Amino acid sequence: MSKFALIIDQKKPVQLLTSLLRHDTIPNALLFTGVEGIGKYTTAMMFAMACNCLSKDPWIFFQSANQATKGLICYCKACVKIRSGNHPDIIHIKPSGAYIKVGQIRSLQDVLAMKPYEARMRVVIISDAQAMNPSAGNALLKVLEEPPDQTILIMTAIQSSDLLPTIISRCQHIRFSPISHKSLEDILVDKKGLDYDDAKIIATLASGSLSKALSMVESKNLIKWVNRRSWLINILSLDIAGQISTKPVVSLLAFAAELSKNKEILQDALEMIKSWLRDVVVYKSCPEKIINRDLVDNIQNVAQKLTVEQIIEKIEAVRTAQKGIRASANLRLTLEAMVMQLAHESQT
Predict the structure, then answer these.
(1) Which residues pair with 157 in a beta bridge?
(2) What does the DSSP assignment read for 148-209?
(3) Cα dist. 162→138, 153, 251, 326 in Å?
(4) pTM recorded for the entire structure
(5) Could you tell me which of 347, 338, 345 has the C-alpha nearest to residue 255?
(6) How far from each other are the two terminal CA atoms of the chain, in whole angstroms?
(7) How many CA atoms lie within 13 A of 206 on its CB side?
(8) Which of 37, 31, 29, 30 has its CA nearest to residue 9?
(9) Contact 44, 174 (CB under 8 A)
(10) What's the gap between Cα 59 and its chain centre?
């Protein structure tokens, strides 16, 4: 866990997890959902330490871990092992390539058939659970149907709808919020030494994700990120309500083709589009809460011309494309369908 591995702006999840610890009502399975880079995995690791710490009351540990900058550092044997990633009973499963495969879940089943080596509570963390292929999902369902003793399963995912309903129904669902604009700014200024103006722009582009903000800092190319957002908004004419429908179909398809060739920026590009569209909806009722504050004039213009229903349909078009991409649908056809839906929905 890095020095930035803090639980930031997650008051409700922390309160709920603290209550579970305090009342000893920990469920067999938890599902943490929210965008990437907001602390879901960090919280899962903190929870594993709280369940196994040898030195402190668990709820006090977890509450202290949420205190601002440094958090609580415990040096008991269990916490040191968990923090270093060397505890035999804290198991982390993540995608192997694009998927979490059935073999990974079957190997987990073999481990869970045995008692924990030394932990009071064994914790299994499945990151990006939406990446489970159908066979892996069905194998995991068997684990959830007959949960092993002294074991907690924590899954992290972007949204619950990407998982099997039968899996969701067996988990206690905890939603994590995007990190606030101000918190991101403060971290970038205080921890990374950025000046305020650069921190403000990166916090805007990161859309509530600390990992994305830090990645932008490490790339040392802020102008590239700003230009990329401008390119996306301008080529789709999102800032001129209704104008995307006037673009030639060939131009829209060419844009989809260009996106499909740049897989390394694709997910960020779709998140930028979705973030901007979200701001249009938010502006109608809470303009002070928009993320892309430097584009407030454009956002205001579109918010005055399109209904909430029209914007939500656009957001759903992007979400559908993201879901298709995660399911390995044909990339170019998926993006072409998204762009054409955006154009069509501008006329509704």
Answers:
(1) 33
(2) PTTEEEEEEES-GGGS-HHHHTTSEEEE-PPPPHHHHHHHHHHTT---HHHHHHHHHHTTT-
(3) 14, 18, 31, 9
(4) 0.77
(5) 338
(6) 48
(7) 30
(8) 37
(9) no
(10) 25
Domains and CATH numbers, the chain: 11-175 (3.40.50.300), 221-345 (1.20.272)
Residue 232 token pair: 């996306």
Neighbours of 206 (CB within 10 A): 28
Please, are residues 9 and 37 in contact by the beta-carbon 8 Å criterion? no
Q: Read off the tokens for 180.
A: 């606030």
Q: Which of 117, 112, 118 is nearest to 152 (CA)?
A: 112
Q: What is the DSSP letter of 53?
A: -
pLDDT tens-place string over residues 36-91? 899 999 999 989 998 998 886 665 666 555 443 344 577 889 989 998 999 999 99
**CB–CB of 33/155 below 8 Å?**
no
The string of pLDDT tens digits covering residues 97-145 is 888 999 999 999 999 999 999 999 999 999 999 999 889 999 999 999 9
Nearest to 120 by CA among 146, 80, 151, 144: 151
Any idea which residue has 């958090």 for tokens? 71
The structure tokens 């903000």 sit at 213
What are the b/e assignments for 131-160, b being 16+ CB within 10 Å? bbbeebbebbeebbeeebeebbbbbbbbeb
Q: Residue type for 78, please?
A: A
In the DSSP assignment, the letter for residue 96 is B
For residue 92, give the H/E element and its range.
Answer: strand 90-93
Dihedral sign, CA of 313, 202, 180, 79?
positive
